[in-house]
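F.,

This is the one I mentioned.
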């Protein structure tokens, strides 16, 4: 059946979804569509102006008009429902029969499915019937309604939990759900916007393009501009359905908190947080504002696309946004037919998610494949901004620090991070937690950290969480969901994909360039150990950081330099002076060694009286170590020089800082240390005595 209706032909929608030219019994008569999508074109299209990221398209070049349209949309949504467990308790506490009926409905459906699996297992047919049972589970979730559909959507992105047959079936819950009658949808549009549909759209698809858990989407064309848009209309009676389910689930949460000791988190708090997010999804004006904020923060990247919102045609139950052509991110074959790579798009999603979680703290909490599209131009389009959340500022830096401590295997610091993450109250002693962390990570980190997947870390930390008085914050549960969804999408394309490896460039860039005191201290902790500078760590950070497109050589290490010359940098200055002396000595003596090696053998014998050790009293091992350090420093300098943004002018801020009195004092101490080291070596060379201490006091 074509989605387009002939020009000027009146039609009606039957409740069964069929299109009738003559109304049958029970048919609601609608307006005649004025034109087909492919034929309708306004004679004059108003000029649309983009006021920058997040502003949306503004008609007539006047930003004020857009703000006024948003204000009108907010007024239309003034009575949108909000989640209140107290009101739900009052409402359903007085309806025991309805509550009992719904409880039995859920128990019967879930128990019947569980019994079927048990029978399959006993008959040895569990594997043979996977596809059949997966389809049955999808139908169970669909019959149970929107709340359980959302549970199924979450499972559809977890290849670590569900077999492939279940993943494929449950993925249909993302946008292939049963629809509600189109007559109700069009009536809702007119009621919410206060206008006849034919005065808003020159055309609209006669049936939904997609149906989701909370609403269904139509493709239409705006009459005033010719812009092709997506119109999302909320399901009727949705508030009643999810309200009763959350009332029951919350009661179950109280029972879990009271009787299930293995779960130490506040389950009721997690349920309340999730319910609040779902209720926010019911307010489409709020979703539009979320989309605008998300666009402003993250759509500045050329490979991220966020659709614009049309406020004049948006209300609490109707959302009109820019139409986006694209393919769902889990449809690998369709993506590759467009000449695109799934892993490139997943990497874009990971980098954007890291910015969301750790830079601005405002993140998309429901990134299932139906909400992530690959556009023909290779962009990653984010859709459906109903469920959003925020990471507290302190937690953002604590998460980055936690990764650094994991790399360093500093389990005492890892345990202390849980205070900043709000996992533990300040009065809890973390010392008993350290052995549990050590036992897990010492085994897990036998390979490099980049080879770990997110599931391994979550599972390992989960085992620790269960043993100690952790209280996982609600925002963290949404972070886990967001990251596991992205990892699940990546595993579709590559079973060996590692989220941590893909995340390294972002972490390295933040550590090298962010002036935040917490991250500055984490960088110093990573680079210095036992009073020595770890050049291999710096080289690795630069190699990884350069992979991030936002990495700037000019900003690299500037935070540490400022600390070094600041009033709180005395301890760091002592370490830097020792390392500067060691590196300078390495270059001076390395030059001597190179010069000696270029001298012909005969001249060496004459110049050094046949001394086989040459001009320096050093073992081969010491010489190799010295030359290796010099090569490493030169490689690091080469990395900086080869960066796209490199310009000798990047040294100017350093030279300016070196004019400060503290810097001149620092330079004097370095020169003094070098002089002492070289004088000591010269004296030993003259006396031909072996060196007893390769590190002089400064």
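My design for it:
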């Amino acid at each position: 059946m074509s989605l387009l209706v002939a020009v000027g032909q009146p039609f009606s929608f039957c409740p069964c979804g069929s299109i009738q030219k003559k109304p049958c019994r029970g048919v609601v008569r609608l307006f005649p569509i004025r034109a087909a999508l492919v034929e309708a074109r306004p004679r004059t299209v108003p000029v649309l102006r983009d006021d920058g990221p997040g502003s949306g398209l503004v008609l007539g070049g006047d930003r004020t008009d857009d703000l006024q349209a948003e204000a009108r949309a907010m007024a239309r949504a003034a009575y949108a429902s909000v989640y209140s467990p107290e009101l739900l308790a009052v409402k359903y506490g007085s309806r025991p029969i309805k509550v009992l009926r719904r409880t039995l409905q859920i128990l019967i459906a879930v128990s019947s499915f569980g019994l079927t699996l048990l029978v399959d297992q006993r008959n040895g047919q569990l594997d043979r019937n996977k596809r059949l049972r997966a389809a049955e589970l999808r139908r169970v979730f669909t019959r149970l309604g929107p709340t359980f559909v959302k549970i199924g959507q979450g499972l559809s992105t977890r290849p670590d939990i569900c077999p492939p047959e279940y993943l494929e079936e449950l993925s249909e819950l993302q946008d292939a759900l049963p629809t509600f009658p189109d007559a109700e949808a069009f009536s809702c549009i007119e009621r919410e916007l206060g206008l006849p549909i034919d005065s808003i759209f020159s055309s609209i698809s006669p049936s939904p393009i997609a149906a989701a858990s909370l609403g269904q989407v139509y493709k239409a064309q705006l009459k005033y501009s010719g812009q092709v848009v997506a119109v999302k209309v909320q399901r009727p009676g949705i508030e009643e359905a999810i309200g009763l389910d959350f009332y029951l689930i919350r009661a179950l949460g109280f029972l879990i908190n009271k009787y299930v000791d293995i779960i130490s988190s506040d389950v009721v708090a997690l349920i309340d947080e999730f319910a609040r997010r779902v209720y926010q999804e019911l307010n489409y004006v709020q979703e539009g504002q979320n989309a605008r904020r998300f666009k402003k923060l993250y759509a500045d990247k050329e490979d991220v696309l966020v659709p614009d919102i049309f406020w004049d045609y948006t209300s609490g139950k109707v959302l009109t946004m820019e139409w986006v052509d694209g393919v769902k991110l889990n449809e690998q074959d369709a993506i590759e037919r467009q000449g695109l790579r799934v892993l490139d798009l997943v990497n874009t999603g990971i980098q954007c998610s890291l910015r969301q979680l750790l830079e601005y703290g405002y993140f998309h909490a429901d990134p299932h494949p139906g909400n992530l599209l690959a556009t023909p131009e290779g962009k990653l389009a984010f859709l459906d901004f109903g469920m959003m959340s925020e990471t507290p500022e302190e937690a953002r830096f604590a998460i980055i620090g936690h990764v650094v401590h994991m790399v360093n295997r500093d389990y005492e610091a890892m345990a202390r991070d849980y205070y900043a993450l709000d996992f533990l109250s300040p009065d809890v002693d973390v010392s008993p937690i350290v052995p549990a962390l050590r036992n897990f990570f010492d085994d897990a980190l036998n390979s490099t950290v980049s080879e770990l997947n997110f599931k391994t870390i979550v599972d390992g930390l989960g085992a620790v969480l269960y043993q100690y008085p952790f209280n996982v914050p609600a925002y963290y549960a949404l972070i886990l969901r967001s990251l596991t969804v992205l990892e699940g999408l990546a595993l579709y394309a590559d079973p060996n994909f590692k989220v941590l490896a893909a995340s390294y460039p972002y972490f390295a860039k933040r550590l090298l360039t962010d002036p935040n005191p917490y991250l500055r201290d984490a960088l110093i902790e990573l680079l210095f150990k036992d009073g020595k500078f770890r050049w291999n760590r710096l080289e690795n950070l630069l190699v990884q950081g350069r992979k991030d497109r936002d990495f700037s050589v000019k900003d690299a290490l500037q935070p540490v330099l400022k600390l070094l010359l600041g009033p709180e940098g005395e301890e760091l200055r002592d370490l830097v002076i020792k390392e500067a002396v060691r590196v300078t000595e390495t270059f001076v003596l390395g030059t001597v060694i190179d010069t000696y090696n270029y001298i012909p053998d005969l001249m060496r014998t004459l110049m050094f009286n046949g001394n086989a050790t040459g001009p320096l009293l050093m073992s081969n091992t010491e010489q190799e170590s010295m030359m290796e350090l010099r090569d490493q420093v030169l490689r690091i300098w080469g990395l900086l020089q080869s960066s796209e943004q490199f310009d000798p002018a990047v040294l100017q801020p350093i030279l300016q800082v070196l004019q400060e009195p503290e810097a001149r004092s620092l330079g004097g101490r370095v020169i003094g240390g070098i002089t002492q080291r070289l004088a000591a070596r010269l004296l030993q060379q003259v006396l031909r005595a072996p060196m007893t201490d390769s590190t002089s006091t400064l």
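The two ends are 86 Å apart (CA to CA).

Talk soon.
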